[in-house]
Amino acid sequence: MDKVTIENLSDYDGKEIELRGWVYNTRSIGKIWFIIFRDGTGLVQGVVVKGEASNEAFALKQKLNQEDSVIIIGTVKKEPRSVGGYELGIKDITIVNHVTEEYPISPKEHGADFLMSNRHLWLRSKRQNAIMRVRHQVVKAIRDFFDINGFTLIDSPIFTGNAVEGTTTLFEVDYFERSAYLTQSGQLYQEAGATAFGKTYCFGPTFRAEKSKTRRHLTEFWMVEPEMAYVDIDENMTWAENLVSYILDKVLAKCKNELNTLERDISKLENMKPPFPRITYDEAFKLLKERGSTFEYGNDFGAPDETILSNQFDKPIMIHRWPAEIKAFYMKRDSGNNDLALGVDMIAPEGYGEIIGGGQREDNIEVLTKRIRHHDLPLEPFQWYLDLRKYGSVPHSGFGMGLERTVAWICGTKHIRETIPFPRTMTRLEP
Ligand code: 4AD
Ligand code: MG
After folding, report:
1. Is the backbone peptide bond immediately before 395 cis, with ω within 30 degrees of 0?
2. What pLDDT, in 10s, does the model give residues 82-133?
3. What's the rounded Cα separation, in Å, for the pair 409 and 404?
4. 8 Å CB contact between 300 and 341
5. Other C-beta atoms within 10 Å of 245: how many?
6. CATH fold for domain 2-97
7. Is the beta carbon of 225 within 6 A of some atom in ligand 1?
8. Ligand 1 site-directed mutation target among 167, 169, 185, 322, most atoms within 8 Å of CB
9. How far is it, in rounded angstroms, from Cα 43 to Cα 91?
10. Given the CA of residue 186, which atom of ligand 1 is nearest to it?
């Protein structure tokens, strides 16, 4: 007998098959009863009819509990009214493990904190399943995009000896006789990669000891970071918009069911074709002022500012050329105005905020040395980084895209903690 999964049921119309999984729910109407069954790939309704099912299976009516592990055998039938379009005429049910206590997560409403404390179980629910499957496709699309476009994967280390994005958000750890930090970004190592391979990327967890409790901040999040030699800020923006548009194409093609489960308005994700609007920080500032914002020039945009800005457009926008004082030490200055850094942020539509940060890097060794000093950073751990300017320095650029923020936007989830299997925030280390 074929052992199949729910997502592939359509290949087995009319056939008897075996499914292995768990009880999601049961209900009965008169002489028949129904088992809603999940196997991780989807949900299917099994119909248990006296005479058609074995006596043993039929006798399980009202005896199965939510999350009992069971193996079921039955015949696949087309049923347009059913989720997934198929139903199962049950023949046999084998209980692998019977749950004797009430399952903590019932169909009734639970608070977010309760659900997060039960994250190890909550992942089984339909909505969480859909989000994780979208995340999976986003990751796959990212890797495919870079692969197709000639990038080499160069993994950046997680233990590092220096800061990248400012010293206030570093996690310090004991590292034998000295201190190390959990990486905030793999960028600096990608700069070494780009000079060795031309175009590279890394994709892994990054850490920020941010004392921030917003719905956009995790202390551990995944970032994908491409870096390209002989690329300026304009071409960098082209790479960024192409990546985002590629991801959306793939997710829309592969995750229709998941997005439906999430009740995502898909029309808002369609037609995200490049070019995306590119505006300078100064233009963004003017736009905010015209809309009555109290935003002060020289600051970073807060969530409400980003929402006002993104609402002016129906695609993600790229804001470039920032006041250098609020950007990282490694950013190259605009040749037309030394107060501006060649940084770029991409802001997602619908108020989902910044999903990408990047820019063109300083490639002059004297200027870069001065900047490191100006930012009060120790020179010693950056010697290797300065070497990249000593030997074969070229204009180069790159960016980092936050995976969870991107998934949150695509899924339409309010809080990014639902977009990572086991979120880490200021107040959560378990499960
Ligand atoms: O803007 P950020 O800090 O840029 C960098 O780290 C650069 N070194 C990247 C590069 O150029 N290679 O972070 C990049 C992105 C943000 O746009 C956001 O999507 C995400 O990483 N991000 C976070 N996501 C979740 N929680 C946090 N605390 C995040 N901080 C940044
Ligand atoms: Mg940023």
Report:
1. no
2. 878 999 999 999 999 999 999 999 878 899 999 999 999 999 999 999 999 9
3. 9
4. no
5. 19
6. OB fold (Dihydrolipoamide Acetyltransferase, E2P) (2.40.50)
7. yes
8. 185
9. 18
10. 12
